[in-house]
Design goal:
Layout (H helix, E strand, L loop, with lengths): L2 H20 L3 E2 L3 E4 L6 H6 L18 E4 L9 E5 L13 E2 L3 E2 L2 H22 L4 E2 L4 H8 L2 H6 L12 H7 L4 H6 L13 H29 L5 E2 L18 H9 L8 H18 L27 E2 L11 E3 L6 E4 L11 E2 L17 H8 L9 H8 L4 H11 L6 H4 L11 E4 H12 L3 H11 L27 H8 L4 E4 L7 H9 L4 H10 L21 H20 L3 E3 L13 H13 L8 E3 L3 H15 L7 H40 L1
Helix pairs in contact: 3-4, 3-10, 6-23, 13-22, 13-23, 15-20, 20-23, 21-23, 22-23
């Protein structure tokens, strides 16, 4: 790391620490803000073994963090104490505004952050600030006090908001998170994609969110004196950036830069809003209040100066050294060393541990509970997809260990079906529409007739097994569908999305959704009538268990359809490339072409074939992922753009592999059930 960056970290740490100390807080004298490679050589080489020396879970070592740089720290020593009045949050902002509108805790926290940024930026730009319509001087001083903290915040964030549509489609193909992130695009399922147009649509959706939620609240705060504008911007009557503007976003931004004489800071505030969303998403904490004095029993989000500089490590892993807690006496946010910390170690805590709200809670934890939690030593309570969506990163190294365990071909079903906390994978999602369409396709295929013939030829019909004419599922508005009220009511009562976890993929909801598409009307009517409540009100749904799969005809239809759907969904994770250059703004200066050429070398099966794909072979994808992560820890990271693309690929591929593992596990269970039917 260059000397200038090291000096910037030292100055930032000094300013932030002094600010906290001057306001009644505490920072352990050994702590310092550093890069992982910015620790004296003898500290890392002599005092810390490879098994205990803390490193970031990110696939690179470019992330700064808090280290015990100056001395070792003993178990029980207080590391950080942040008084509650130094937390940046939305407790003091009004909840009700406009006509019957309520501001969420997130919106109030965002408004406080935007005001603090706006005030501090004007102070830094002009040396002073004169605010118009401020409620009182105390309010202004309150926003000004956060200057040292705001200077510690990064300019950019690892957030999905910074992913282009090309990156979302390529790195999160088929995943639930990718589908959600692209949901704002109108023709999201079109065969041909205009990446630049889709980028504009994603940005337009973000601006619409700003217009419909944030702008109205900021204008209300401005009217009552809670949101103060700099004097140069007092002619700005609205924070509106022009929601009906149809110009290309790049042209729009260029135009707005030339209109500074109009005295509007609307676009600047929108950019702060976008940055604020990423800041709160990746850095804020939620914790229960410690007293009734907290406005509205506010539980977060809290932006916690200095504390949010600590990096993540799963609870009870060797890297984890402390847990965020609240002092029940004064509400301070406190972190205490939970083991001896060697000189040179990084101070890590779990972002998602759910920890203890109060310091006093620790003493009441029994030994059995401690042992149970230790079983999840390297397991985050958040999945990789949740980590990426919330905090902007994925613990790729930890995920690789879990994936390697799950993808072993010799794994028996009795092993993987057991309770294994190590297999906390991102679950796959199967939608009700996908199930109904697959069942309809199977009903109209030759499979049911083949199944009937085999039942007759094998003597199953003579033994008492039955088959029936399958219902042709139609829309509820069709006249022929009017006699299927029980079927449609039961389907409507079931969830639109069925979660497929690795540990127990074959749920009752999944079995019921498939079965309702095949059962004869008379059977459903009987089941539906038997589910009446005592007051003669009908239940909204029927829930069937694995026992229904023992019926030869129904079991075969359901399990065959399940496997068909899994195979179809697995295809959606595949991304294919040829040797043509990528045409989109994301490929500025050929960045994507260079990246794809590098990935082609990782994936291609022959030197002649220029086309390649990922998402096709789990074994190959896991091998590439492991290779990239191993190489990343030793790379110089000189090419920032390429490093960023590789990092996003590893994040997306981790989630893709986890979801595919869950689908493959469902397929294995379905195949095993089919085998049991044949053998019975």
């Amino acid at each position: 790391m260059d000397l200038s960056q090291r000096n910037r970290n030292a100055v930032l740490h000094s300013n932030l620490s002094q600010w906290i100390l001057q306001n009644g807080g505490k920072i352990h004298k050994s702590l310092a803000l550093c890069m992982p490679n910015d620790i004296d050589g003898e500290q890392t080489a002599t005092n810390s073994s490879s098994s205990t020396y803390n490193r970031m879970p990110h696939p690179d070592s470019s992330q700064r963090g808090i280290f015990a740089k100056h001395s070792s720290i003993s178990n029980g020593e207080e590391l950080i104490r942040l008084p509650p009045h130094l937390a940046l949050d939305g407790r003091d902002l009004p909840v009700n505004y406009g006509e019957l509108k309520n501001a969420s805790a997130w919106l109030r926290c965002l408004a406080s952050l935007l005001q603090s940024w706006h005030v501090w930026d004007n102070v830094k730009s002009n040396g002073t600030v004169h605010l118009d319509q401020s409620k009182d001087d105390n309010l202004l001083n309150n926003y000004l006090q956060y200057g040292p903290y705001l200077d510690s915040l990064p300019e950019t964030y690892d957030s999905l908001l910074n992913w282009s549509s090309w990156e979302l489609r390529s790195f999160l193909a088929g995943t639930t998170l990718g589908i959600f992130a692209l949901s704002a695009i109108k023709d999201v399922d079109a065969k041909e994609h205009d990446a630049d147009k889709e980028d504009n649509e994603l940005e337009t959706n973000m601006r619409t969110r700003y217009q419909t939620t944030v702008v109205q609240y900021l204008n209300y705060l401005k009217q009552i004196g809670f949101f103060a504008l700099a004097e140069k911007d007092r002619d700005c009557n609205s924070f509106d950036t022009g929601k009906n503007d149809k110009l290309d976003l790049h042209s729009k931004a260029k135009r707005q830069k030339t209109e500074s004489d109009h005295g509007t800071n609307a676009e600047d505030l929108y950019n702060l809003f976008r940055r604020g969303c990423m800041c709160i998403s990746t850095r804020a904490f939620h914790m229960q209040s410690t007293s009734s004095s907290d406005t509205g029993d506010y539980q977060g989000p809290y932006l916690l100066p200095y504390i949010d500089l600590l990096n993540h490590a799963p609870t009870f892993s060797s890297k984890h050294v402390t847990t965020l807690r609240r002092d029940p006496h004064d509400g301070s946010f406190v972190m205490i060393a939970e083991r001896d910390i060697e000189k040179g170690e990084e101070i890590c805590h779990s972002y998602d541990s759910g920890g203890h709200d109060d310091i006093a809670d620790v003493d009441g934890e029994d030994e059995d509970e401690i042992n149970r939690r230790k079983l999840t030593a390297n397991l985050s309570s958040l999945t990789s997809a949740q980590l990426l969506q919330t905090f902007g990163f994925v613990d790729v190294k930890g995920a690789i260990e879990r994936l390697s365990h799950c993808l072993k071909k010799d794994k028996s079903l009795s092993t993987v079906n057991g309770s294994q906390p190590q297999t906390n994978l991102t679950p796959a999602i199967i939608t009700k529409d996908e199930i109904c369409q697959t069942c309809k396709d199977v009903s109209m295929s030759s499979y049911p007739n083949s199944l009937r013939r085999s039942m007759e030829e094998d003597g199953l019909v003579d033994d008492g097994w039955e088959y029936w004419d399958l219902p042709l599922m139609k829309d509820e508005s069709d006249e022929e569908s009017s006699t299927e009220t029980s079927r449609h009511t039961s389907l409507d009562g079931l969830p639109d999305d069925v979660i497929i976890p690795y540990e127990n993929p074959l749920s009752d909801e999944l079995i019921t959704l498939f079965s309702l598409n095949f059962l004869p009307k008379e059977a459903i009517d009987d089941l539906f009538c038997s589910s009446h409540r005592s007051d003669n009100q009908q239940e909204n749904s029927i829930l069937l268990t694995e026992e229904v799969l023992d019926d030869y005809f129904l079991g075969k239809l359901v399990l065959h359809s399940m496997i068909q759907l899994v195979n179809k969904k697995l295809e959606r994770y595949q991304v294919c490339f040829n040797d043509e250059p990528v045409e989109c703004r994301t490929n500025m200066n050929g960045t994507l072409d260079v990246f794809l050429e590098f990935m082609r070398g990782m994936y291609k099966e022959s030197a002649v074939d220029k086309a390649f794909s990922w998402g096709k072979s789990e074994a190959k994808d896991l091998n590439v992922l492991s290779t990239l992560v191993a190489a990343g820890s030793n790379s110089s990271q000189d090419d920032v753009a390429q490093h960023d693309l590789i990092k996003k690929f590893t994040y997306g591929m981790t989630i893709s592999l986890e979801e595919r593992c869950c689908l493959l596990q469902l397929k294995r269970v379905a195949l095993d059930k089919l085998l049991q039917i044949d053998e019975s």
